[in-house]
Amino acid sequence: PAKITIFFFWCNLRISIYYYHQTGDIDDQYTLKLPLTNDDLQFNQIVCDRTNSVLATLTTQNAALPSSQTNDITFLQASSGLMTRIDFPTIGGLTEFQNSGVVYKAELIMHPTLNSMEIIEPPDTIVLYDSDKTNRMISSVQSGILSIEQEFNENTQYSFDITSFIRYELSDNYYDTEHGLLTGFNNNDFWTTLKRVKFSASNQEYKPQLRIYLLLY
């Protein structure tokens, strides 16, 4: 949607009840303040309505929604459970170099979209997780820290060293296409914040990149 509204309140929220007590011809005003500080008496819920958005068909965890169906844009949003999955369907082609070289380094680069950074400041850190065909978060692979190019934001990016991940995937000369990576947040940010970031592959210069360096012998 073109316009998005998010309501949230800090934990020092309280309810104030103003009432009057009449004594003869005099109205006495009283205030009853009820601080919401007891977690056992609170109910918190986040509800997402993605109707009429490019994510409208995203309804279950294990259903695939390729970026080709979302105008080549993807999102991360804490608390709502919105994550981006990254697959490498052609990485198996590197097995032909197994007998003549090794993967020296593998680096994943992700650029937040320039227009989104003008509206929402991207989070300082995002996290990569191992994932299977049902999109479960199996284990944390690595955190990526935002590198900011202050003047034009053109080189603002998250970078991840996924050398160990790629080497392991190719170690038996077979790449499991059901094994991928999920981008998200650490456990604390995921459940207690509304941090979010937007990525796009529509611009060739700023689309996500997997850079693989081979050492041939």
The radius of gyration over CA amounts to 24 Å
Q: Per DSSP, what share of the residues sits in E-state strands of 2 or more residues?
A: 35-45%
Head-to-tail CA distance between termini? 53 Å
Number of strands: 11
Amount of helix: under 10%
What class, by secondary structure content? mainly beta
Q: Largest beta sheet, briefly?
A: 7 strands, antiparallel
Q: Mean of residue pLDDT? A: 83
The strands making up the biggest β-sheet line up spatially as 4-9-6-7-8-5-11
Shape: elongated
Order of H and E elements: EEEEEHEEEHEHEE
Segments where pLDDT lies below 50 for 5+ residues? Answer: none
Total helical elements? 3
Helix-strand blueprint:
Layout: E1 14-23, E2 26-35, E3 73-77, E4 84-86, E5 101-110, H1 114-117, E6 125-131, E7 139-147, E8 157-161, H2 163-170, E9 180-184, H3 187-192, E10 196-200, E11 209-216
Antiparallel strand pairs: 1-2, 3-10, 4-9, 5-8, 5-11, 6-7, 6-9, 7-8
General description of the model:
- It contains three helices and eleven strands.
- By secondary structure, it is mainly beta.
- It has a seven-stranded antiparallel beta sheet, covered by helices on one side. A two-stranded antiparallel ribbon has the order 1-2. The protein has a two-stranded antiparallel ribbon with strand order 3-10.
- The model has no long low-confidence stretch (mean pLDDT 83).
